[in-house]
Amino acid sequence: MAGSSRKKKTIYLFVGIFVALVVFRIFLPVILKNSINKTLGSSLEHYVASIEDLDLSLLTGSYFIEGLVVRKRAANQKTPFIRINEIEVNISWQMIFKGKLVLDVIGQGTRVQLVDGEDNEKNEPQTNLQKESASNWTDALDAVVPLSIQSIRFNDTTLNFSNKKIKGFETFRLNLAVVEIEHLTDPNFLKNNLSPFLVKGDFADDTPFGLDGGIDLTLQEPRFDINFKLSSFDLQKVNRLLRYYVPLDISTGSLTVFAEMTGSMKNAEGYARVFADDLDIVELGQQYQSGRHFLFEWVGGFANWILQVITDGAIATEIPLKISNEETEVDSGTAIWKTLENAADKIPRRFK
After folding, report:
1. CA 127 to the chain's CA centroid
2. How do 223-234 and 252-264 pair as beta strands?
3. Rounded to whole angstroms, how far apart are CA atoms 216 and 181?
4. pLDDT exceeding 70 applies to what percent of the chain?
5. Beta carbons within 8 Å of 158's beta carbon, 6+ residues apart
6. Is the model more confident about 25 or about 259?
7. Sign of CA dihedral 244, 337, 347, 305
8. Does residue 326 sit in helix, strand or coil?
9. Sign of torsion, CA 307 203 152 351?
10. 71-103 b/e (C-beta count within 10 Å ≥ 16 → b)
């Protein structure tokens, strides 16, 4: 009888532990979700962030977040500043065998909404972002992804810019099909000691662009080597923005850019090769919104006419770029001279 009683107690003990684990597993996502939302709610000063749902896969060492939303505090926007539909966070098993516990992050369906013209100041989105300290954003990120990140991949990302004060202007859209970076924690194992990254997408729905290269974020002063390419961007698509911020608008013309930059955040050097095809600023019969608009149009049109004559109808230049002690320097004098000196066919449409 004593042996039978001990067996029953052992069975009850195992059943109790199993039930406790099941209950714990059921409520753990809710506990984690509430904990993350509490931290997100207190991390940011000018924004408020939250997640809508969280699920766990203990067998694979993964968790899934649905609906990460960031909104401005004291803003009446229906559309949030940032929304990420899905985030999948996985343990990097490859790095486990190297003795590191790090994570791989995959995002799906990111939308970023930049809105200007909500108050009397221009560039309001940038002003708000600058007010929020980097440490606050780091705290918010740590709440969602508590360990070091080994790789990031975001699919289907869209950045929308709108200005409520520009009549007839809806949204300027930047679509990013892929944003990825790998080997964030171990770039020293790679040939050039830089974590490779890739950004591919299009401006205004139909102009392809690419950004790629490498970066080392493990250093106190991060190093980078980046390439940027924009192909045949129709300048008429930004007329309403140019008219509001300059004011100036483009009758016809397309823009192609090849740019490279290498160095660190404090000191770097590079260049941008810029090509303007079929550029025309002043159009016969054009209506001007102000005397300032008229002046900019005709000064810009006259300068464009001179360049068209000198360069046989196509404008091209190579602009030296430099970062010195965290200050960006653009050698505009060299850029203007190269424009006057070189026709478009003398500057190759490629990277150096």
Report:
1. 17
2. antiparallel
3. 11
4. 74
5. 110, 111, 112, 173, 174, 175, 176
6. 259
7. positive
8. coil
9. negative
10. bbeeeeeeebbebbebbebbbbeebeeeeeebb
Does the global pTM surpass 0.85?
no
pLDDT for residue 32 is more than 50:
yes
Pairing of strands 82-91, 207-216: unpaired
**Which residue, among 48, 55, 49, has the nearest Cα to 32 in the 3D structure?**
55
Please name the helix (run of DSSP H) or strand (run of DSSP E) that holds residue 270, with its range, or none: strand 267-280
The more confidently predicted of residues 335 and 13 is 13
Q: Are 81 and 110 in contact (CB under 8 A)?
A: no
Q: What is the pLDDT of residues 153-190, one digit of tens each?
A: 999 999 988 877 777 666 788 999 999 999 998 888 88
Q: ∠ CA 73-74-75 to the nearest 5 degrees?
A: 90
Angle of CA points 60, 65, 70, to nearest 5°: 155
Tokens of 224: 């980078």
CA quadruple 34, 35, 41, 44: dihedral positive or negative? negative
26-30, 38-42, 222-226: which range is least confident on average? 26-30
For residue 190, give the DSSP letter: S
Q: Is residue 24 very low, low, confident or very high in pLDDT (cuts 50, 70, 90)?
A: low
Cα–Cα distance list, 249 to 240, 270, 288, 304, 351 (Å): 7, 29, 10, 13, 29
Render pLDDT for 291-347 as a digit per residue (tens, 0 to 9).
444 444 434 443 454 445 445 556 788 888 888 887 777 666 665 556 555 555 677
Contact partners, residue 153, CB within 8 Å, separation at least 6: 104, 105, 106, 107, 178, 179, 180
- Does 123 have pLDDT greater than 70? no
Q: Is residue 135 exposed (0-12), middle (13-18) or buried (19+ Cβ within 10 Å)?
A: exposed
